[in-house]
Write a structure and sequence with these properties.
The chain is an alpha+beta fold. It is 41% helix and 24% strand. The longest helix has 27 residues.
């Protein structure tokens, strides 16, 4: 049965973490976010944090652990839309109904921090820079989702596997040199659900990449051995937030 590992607790250290997750904030904006009340939760693997179309009233910041976003028709026909990694936000949507666009389920044990979505959006009235940062975050999320559509609609199986690996590598180790090892706690079955492939087909592509000396994939980690080559093979382009424009500088100019 899904359950919390420990009861939720109020924390004073979460606000600065939220400020770091948003690009281009001024110091006053960071300060006001640092004072936003928050609750820390520790959740087990395979815990459903949100259901599709469920009304949203909180913003969730992932401190540790991975989750997936998925939609589908029944339990046997699920499409993984993407993955939530440490440092990511969940619960921020552009939909005027303020409803969850997908199911969110933990893939590992996770630590999350929850903020009142109403209180956060209320701050944007007095601090428009926070609103601009939230919109920039949503734009990055839309770009990552667009890449998922591109993978499913226009790429071969080989290209899909490479492109997804590079995305998950880049989101954890932007600009890291070849040979850097990052977390990869997802099974080939889950990769298949994300890429619209059979498990056998995914395994075939992974074995090919290993044979070509381009990646090393262990039980819970991924090592990219030739990022440039893989980028050339798949057409991958970074969507990482650290490369977003400095909004604070833009507003000051």
């Amino acid at each position: 049965m899904n359950m919390l590992v420990t009861p939720p607790k109020t924390t004073d250290a979460a606000g600065p973490r939220l400020a770091r997750a948003l690009p281009g904030l001024t110091e006053p904006e960071r300060l006001v976010l640092s004072n936003l009340p928050a609750v820390t939760r520790f959740v087990r693997r395979n815990t459903t944090l949100a259901h599709e179309a469920q009304p949203l009233d909180r913003l969730r910041l992932f401190i540790s652990g991975w989750a997936k976003r998925s939609v589908g028709i029944g339990p046997e026909r699920q499409q993984v839309l993407g993955f939530v990694l440490p440092g990511d936000l969940d619960g921020l949507v552009a939909d005027y109904r303020q409803a969850a666009p997908a199911d969110v389920v933990t893939l590992t044990r996770c630590e999350t921090v929850e903020f009142s979505l109403f209180e956060l959006l209320h701050l944007t009235q007095d601090y428009p820079g926070i609103g601009a940062a939230l919109r920039a975050y949503l734009a990055d999320e839309a770009a990552i989702l667009g890449d998922q559509v591109l993978r499913l609609g226009r790429m071969s199986a080989y290209e899909r596997v490479i492109h997804l690996m590079l995305e998950l590598f880049d989101r954890q180790a932007l600009g890291a040199p070849d040979g850097t090892r990052v977390d990869f706690p997802i099974t080939q079955s889950l990769v298949a659900d994300a890429l619209g492939l059979s498990v056998v087909h995914v395994n075939r592509q992974v074995m090919r990449l290993r044979k070509e000396g381009l990646v090393r994939l262990d039980r819970r980690s991924l090592t990219v051995l030739n990022f440039a080559k893989l980028q050339s093979l798949s057409g991958y382009r970074t969507r990482i937030r650290e490369r977003a424009p400095d909004l604070a500088s833009a507003r000051a100019s």
